[in-house]
């Protein structure tokens, strides 16, 4: 339950921010609690890390503490469930404070990404032995247009240089803590954890993931995930 970094066994902590309300799904239930082939999304996601032999502990930042405890509090390696924040960034920071002693490798993963494969998970964790910051990502397949406020195309970036970021995003703990502290000092809010690390000058590398590692955001995403699980059954 650790990664060999230069001959030292470094434990792995997983942070799962699960305080979102999932408003784009409609209805009154947060998407991480919705069923996916009969099992709540959060249970499927946490299970991915519970079963991973490289993971030492799981820390969840939750909005609904009672429901989260009932669903996943008993699962292997779930060490702590802490109150989440108003934003994803606040939730990750809250969970990061609950991570056990450092040095550590810390993986941050979306609660609503239950289709991560063991191969990608173990691959990116092992790569953290060599790199202090990693983002699971896939090459962009579509042509991307940059537009201005009036909807006019101003540029067409070379898609060969574009990757779509996913999770997990994996960091040496001291690198991630320093990035969060700097962001808080500057009042900076990023769209993912890697964007905070990028600001500190630490190089962030991509680890090639899989297109099927989708984030469940809309009803169409749930239908796609159901189909993927059915096909893999």
Automatic annotation (TrEMBL):
Pathway where it operates: Isoprenoid biosynthesis; isopentenyl diphosphate biosynthesis via DXP pathway; isopentenyl diphosphate from 1-deoxy-D-xylulose 5-phosphate: step 2/6
Enzyme class: transferase
SUPFAM superfamilies given in the database record: Nucleotide-diphospho-sugar transferases
Nucleotidyltransferase in keyword set: yes
InterPro entries found in the cross-reference section: IspD, IspD/TarI, IspD/TarI_cytidylyltransf_bact, Nucleotide-diphossugar_trans
EC number: 2.7.7.60
Gene Ontology molecular functions: nucleotidyltransferase activity
Site (Positions MEP for the nucleophilic attack): 159, 215
Keywords assigned: Isoprene biosynthesis, Nucleotidyltransferase, Transferase
Site for Transition state stabilizer, residues: 24, 31
Catalytic activity: 2-C-methyl-D-erythritol 4-phosphate + CTP + H(+) = 4-CDP-2-C-methyl-D-erythritol + diphosphate
Pfam families in the record: IspD
HAMAP family, per the entry: IspD
Biological role stated in the UniProt entry: Catalyzes the formation of 4-diphosphocytidyl-2-C-methyl-D-erythritol from CTP and 2-C-methyl-D-erythritol 4-phosphate (MEP).
Family the UniProt entry places it in: Belongs to the IspD/TarI cytidylyltransferase family. IspD subfamily.
Matches recorded under NCBIfam families: ispD
Protein name: 2-C-methyl-D-erythritol 4-phosphate cytidylyltransferase
């Amino acid at each position: 339950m650790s990664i060999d970094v230069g001959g030292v066994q470094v434990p792995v902590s997983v942070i799962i921010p699960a305080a979102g309300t999932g408003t784009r799904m409609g209805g009154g239930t947060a998407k991480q609690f919705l069923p996916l082939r009969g099992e709540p999304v959060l249970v499927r996601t946490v299970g991915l890390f519970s079963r991973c032999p490289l993971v030492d502990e799981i820390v969840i930042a939750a909005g609904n503490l009672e429901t989260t405890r009932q669903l996943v509090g008993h699962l292997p390696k779930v060490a702590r469930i802490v109150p989440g924040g108003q934003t994803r960034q606040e939730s990750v920071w809250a969970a990061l404070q609950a991570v056990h002693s450092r040095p550590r490798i810390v993986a941050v993963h979306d609660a609503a990404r239950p289709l991560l494969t063991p191969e990608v998970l173990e691959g990116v964790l092992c790569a953290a032995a060599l790199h202090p910051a990693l983002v699971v990502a896939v090459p962009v397949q579509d042509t991307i247009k940059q537009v201005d406020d009036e909807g006019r195309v101003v540029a067409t970036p070379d898609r060969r240089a574009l990757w779509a970021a996913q999770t997990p995003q994996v960091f040496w703990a001291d690198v991630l803590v320093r990035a969060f502290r700097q962001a808080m000092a500057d009042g900076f809010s990023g769209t993912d954890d890697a964007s905070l690390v990028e600001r500190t000058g630490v190089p962030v590398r991509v680890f090639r993931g899989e297109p099927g590692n989708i984030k469940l955001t809309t009803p169409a995403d749930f239908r796609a995930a159901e189909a993927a699980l059915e096909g893999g059954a």
